[in-house]
Amino acid sequence: MLKKSLLALAVSSIGVMSLPALADTYEIDTKGAHASINFAVKHLGYSWLTGRFDNFSGEFTYDPAKPEASTINVTIDTTSVNSNHAERDKHLRSPDFLNVEKFPKATFVSKQIKVDGDDKDEFDIIGDLTLNGVTKSITIEVDKVGEGKDPWGGYRAGFEGETEINMKDFNIKMDLGPASQTVKLELHVEGIKK
């Protein structure tokens, strides 16, 4: 009886040890303004017009030992577009651009993480961006900034990412000329472990 019990314990222990570690879940810290979604588009090919989305939310899972198992999802309030110019922002909200009356939200949901070689702090996030009612797969190049305890007893992890999208791919009707067909997105994401 004792041998059977020890054998059962050993087998169950092996089963537990072979289970993959679960990634931690983080809430993106938008309340503390430790995250941002910024954009830049060339203005007539002469300079850059920059802006951001003031309101968004989301969460991600992350395991530093296995970043390829990570996930992220973000919801953006497109009505919160802010280019520091009220009249231009009104135009950006119109059907010429973001069409926020019809599509007040944009989303990004990851589908796959690809680690770049041996460096687990650099990876590509491949996922679906839904913007202006259109869903397309995009790739975001990501660098880990850091992780660790914060002064308030929590634990944080931070990343930065970049990607570029073609406006026509997302049914944005306004044509700003040949030098202004794409938009650069720059992302800064700091999460607090749940």
UniProtKB/TrEMBL annotation:
Residues 25-192 form the Lipid/polyisoprenoid-binding YceI-like domain. The keyword Signal applies. This is YceI family protein. Gene3D superfamilies: Lipid/polyisoprenoid-binding, YceI-like (2.40.128.110). The keyword Acyltransferase does not apply. Residues 1-23 form the signal peptide. Pfam families: YceI (PF04264). PANTHER family: PROTEIN YCEI (PTHR34406). It comes from Cellvibrio fontiphilus. NCBIfam families: PRK03757.1. Keywords: Signal.
